[in-house]
Amino acid sequence: MRTTTREALLRMGIDLRDVDQPIGTLSGGERQCVAIARAVHFGAKVLVLDEPTAALGVKQSGVVLKYVAAARDEGLGVVLITHNPHHAYLVGDRFVLLKRGAMAASHTKDSVTLDELTRQMAGGSELEDLRHELERPSGT
Length: 140
Fold this sequence. Notes:
The chain has six helices and four strands; from the N terminus they run ααβαβαββαα. By secondary structure, the chain is α+β, with helices and mostly antiparallel strands. Helix 2 packs parallel to helix 3 (58-73). The mean pLDDT is 85.
């Protein structure tokens, strides 16, 4: 069991200090990486990751995104749910934006820039309308 675990993790490029270490004692990034490696090992065809980097720092987020990309490169379908367009753009090849549960936009990576994706995720024209509403008239 330990050998299989170590080999499965190493195939994904994950080198844990101790495979006997309880999962609860791992960092958030390590936990996410173990979950991804576990899914790959047990033959998952699709990974659905809901905000896997939300509570992580920049370095740990980068590690998780590296393993998301590795799972994608292994041929798994990956659905990455995130509010961070920078993270999505690094590993994604298609982007679907939802607004109140309905599809608001759909793009392939070659059809949208990071700046445009960020603008649309931030609210796009609604944000521009809000900016105009909040601007103070000059002299007040």
